[in-house]
Amino acid sequence: MSSAQGRGKAPEQLADETYDTQKHLTVAVTKFAEARTALAGFIRQRAVRVQKQEETPEQLIAEFALPAPYLLPLDSLAASLGFVVENNVNAHDLSGRTGELRAEEKRTTDQIEGMQQQLAKGTGTPEERTSLRRDLDRATDRLLSVREQQAYIAGHARQAYVTLRLYDEISFPTGNRRISFVNMPGVEYAYLHLDSPKAGLTAPAYSGVALKYLVTRGKSYLNVGMYRPVSGNTGEEDFVNELFVINFGQDFYPRNFGRGRRRYFNLYTCYQLGGFILNRNNDRGTEFIPNLNLGVGVEIFKSKHVLLDTKASYFVPLHDRSRDLRGVLGQAAFNFVF
Fold first, then answer.
1. Confidence class of residue 75 from pLDDT cuts 50, 70 and 90?
2. Higher confidence at residue 148 or residue 188?
3. 337, 304 Cβ separation under 8 angstroms
4. Quick one: how many helices (H) and strands (E) in the chain?
5. CA 49, CA 26: separation in Å to the nearest integer?
6. CA distance 247 to 212
7. Spatial separation of the C-alpha atoms in residues 333 and 271, rounded to whole Å
8. DSSP state, 337?
């Protein structure tokens, strides 16, 4: 573009003025090197003009003009490479802008003809004639700029201006390296079935309720609760009658099952790290035992305001009494935006 047209304008502004279609495409991939090669090849073969192309070991950013018929092949290629985070197309009619430019061209042409006729008469003082020549030069430059803009609009017919970002999902796990915090308190029901309960010391199963507080949309959370024996309390002094549980946990969505963006039935893996205070009937010998849980879960329903999910994990105390207290832990939770 000419310096008169592009001076002081960002590429996005110029695209709005000369392309009737703009597309923003963001793709997250796990095989970044192969995806970058494929997209760079597509741009090299199909783009009619490349405004910008920046490549790093972690991402590719490009802005280019593409014939409109190639937008669908670009979408197909992006979907085959990874997860499409953003795919927005904005279209607007440039006929109004074209009409304005034609009107300005006629108005400026008429002004130039009038000034040329006035100069040809040779009337006026030298200062007036000098000022008139300056006005004529400015009008001529303006006419040139208007005609160039018309030519660019005509030359970009049936083309789209594409802004593309491709990034490595491993290097950029959230796409922008920012953590999305939330404020979602809730309640959780838990049922712990022990593998090898010790007669007279532990019950076959414990259940209870906990407070679960989600702190990031990722999801990271804290839970604090109390588990009590479902049955089997013999009354012996050393029998474990309470587990006061404190945990920090995180859930991770698989890349090939919606990445947690669906409204129903999002699959995820999880861990919980923390511990529990073990209480006995005699209220003596209370101790804190660290634990680690690994498991899988399913978000039954998720919206912007509520979350209902369930998970199953293996409860592993990191203690010499692990054999007596380890087992399968099932949890169901309901959280809401506060």
1. very high
2. 188
3. yes
4. 7, 13
5. 20
6. 9
7. 15
8. -
* 246-268 pLDDT tens trace: 999 999 888 667 677 788 888 99
Tokens 């669906």, located at residue: 262
* Sheet arrangement for strand 49-55: 49-55, 59-67, 159-168, 21-29, 83-91
Predicted confidence (pLDDT) per residue in 80-96, tens digit: 998 888 999 887 766 66
Angle between helices 11-18 and 126-155 (to 10 degrees): 80
285: left (phi over 0), alpha (psi -120 to 50) or beta: left
Phi, psi of 10, deg, nearest 5: -75, 160
Pairwise CA distance, residues 281 & 292, whole Å: 25
* C-alpha to C-alpha distance for 183 and 15, rounded to whole angstroms: 40
Peptide bond into 219 cis (omega under 30): yes
